[in-house]
Amino acid sequence: MREHVWRPVAADDAEAWAALMRAIPHRDRPVDHVDTADFRRGLTAPGATPEDSTGVFAGPELLGWATVRPGTTGDRCDVLFGVHPGQLGTGLDGRLLDWALARAADRPPWPPLVGTWCADHDRARVELLASRGLRPTLTYHEVYSRLDRVPPLTAPPLPEGFRARTYAPELDEAVRVAHNDAFAGQHEDGHVDRDRWRREFTGCPAFLPDLSFLVLDARGEVVAHLLSYAHDASPHGTGQADLKVEYIGTRPGLRGRFLDRVLLAENDRAARERGYVGMVFSVDSANPTGALRVFERIGVYRADRDEVTTWRRYDSPPLLRQHAATGAGGGVA
Q: How far is residue 248's CA from residue 26's CA, in Å, rounded to a whole number?
């Protein structure tokens, strides 16, 4: 048996990390998109230090990984961790979680809030989190639809003077402002600053600008937006062309005018033309806009047809006492 070596991960470990992520079943991965550039970027993200990530190696192979990421609001840390399927049942996942919780407690500035995500079907991990005192505080439903089972969507007419178009870099700042307006009050997604926007939204490698769409009003102002990303954590095999509609938002004063349907129809048309097989979206169960019902009325979601994975955020006791919450990345407004 090869010796297991614990050490901080570095940029040179990106390929080993990607191999580990691909070995983990799609529905259980701690990341949506396996990208070595994303991995390297995370190591140098604002507030990150080399001591915030660790790996368990057997020779060159990475058997387990954990990272502690400072949250955007400065009062919490997010924990991501995963182990090779061959290591399940050995206790390695528990030791990695313990390491991450200890690191979160020790790192400056000390965060009072610590959390991680877990799918309901992963009962072993649910029990592990409960044994460490973490409790569910937020629920997201992730829906996977095969496009060959979904009738093509039809766009309703836009209000006079409005027009739909694909995302363009010159409109990036206007889209960010519209996004913050649309998602105001919905966890952290309503206050995305410029640096985070460029790092995690329209500047990340998974972003698909040709499958992201905007609605502009008669003045040329962005009033609704849809952002798409490459997605390789679908329930089906790797290499399949799936996309994730990560964000779809309409500014508050224009809700109810079916701009979301226009955006989804444009996305549906473009995805089919480019040969995409599946579409994924996630919805906060507490979303005030009733997003899942909206998707059902439009025809994007049907309970007897589509696959739904329920993810919950598990947080440390201080978060429960303060009744705070944080977003999963993704949403509808």
A: 24
CB 273, CB 311: distance < 8 Å = no
Q: What is the DSSP letter of 33?
A: S
What residues contact 309, with CB distance under 8 A and at least 6 apart?
Answer: 27, 119, 120, 121, 141, 142, 144, 235
In angstroms, the Cα distances linking 279 to 29, 220, 326 are: 18, 29, 24
> pTM of the prediction?
0.81
HEC states along 228-268? EEEECCCCCCCCCCEEEEEEEEECHHHCCCCHHHHHHHHHH
CA dist., res. 281 & res. 194, Å (int): 24
What are the pLDDT digits (tens) for 188-224? 566 899 988 998 899 988 899 999 999 999 999 999 9
**How far apart are alpha carbons 98 and 268 in whole angstroms?**
43
Angle, alpha carbons 290-332-189 (nearest 5°): 125
Q: Exposed e or buried b for every residue in 194-220, given b needs 16+ CB within 10 A?
A: eebbebbbbebebbbeebbbbbbbeee
